[in-house]
Amino acid sequence: MRGTRRRVRRGTAGAGAAGLRWEPAPDIRRRLARIARAVGFRHVNARRLFAVRTYGSRANALARIWGLSGIFQRALGLQAAYVVEVLHPAFDRLSRAEQDRVLIHELLHIPTTFSGSLRPEQSRNFRTHHTVSRLYRLYLANRRRA
Fold first, then answer.
1. Lower Cβ count inside 10 Å, N or C end of the chain?
2. 65: containing domain
3. What is the rounded CA–CA span in Å between residue 117 and residue 7?
4. How confident is the chain (146 residues) per 10-residue block, as mean pLDDT?
């Protein structure tokens, strides 16, 4: 039947999950720990915070944070943990300052209970742009002092 075939462009078919690759990102993990310490996020347990760099994702994001929910913690006998995923090349193209702002934004999703859950973007006390700007200035000030 004419007109019912899906047209597939070369090079895009099958580029979904099969084309994804994750690698540990120890550089990002160190930066997250440094930022959390500098801005006074005492609730963030740096030993339970991990980072990965993703290659091949077609997501429209720079970075994402993933929490280990309570049901998995209980079923697997694990503690709460968070993984910050930075997407290459979008994240890596940013300036160092913009990368730091993105990392601060992701850390803001971690609740003060460090329970494995995530704070939503639209919660009452999550004024993203203003909070990120304020915390970035605090981070710079504390980094200069150290």
1. N
2. 17-145
3. 41
4. 42 54 97 96 97 95 96 96 97 97 95 93 71 93 81
> What's the whole-model pTM score?
0.83
Which tokens belong to 33? 């720990």
Which pLDDT does position 57 carry in this prediction?
Answer: 92
- Residue 12 in any domain: the answer is no
Assign residue 100 the CATH number of its domain.
3.30.2010
Domain-embedded: residue 90: yes
Pull the structure tokens for residue 37.
């310490």
**Strand ranges for 1-146 from DSSP E:** 21-24, 49-55, 63-67, 82-88
Supply the DSSP symbol for 7: P
Domain count, the chain: 1
H-helix or E-strand spanning residue 104? helix 96-107
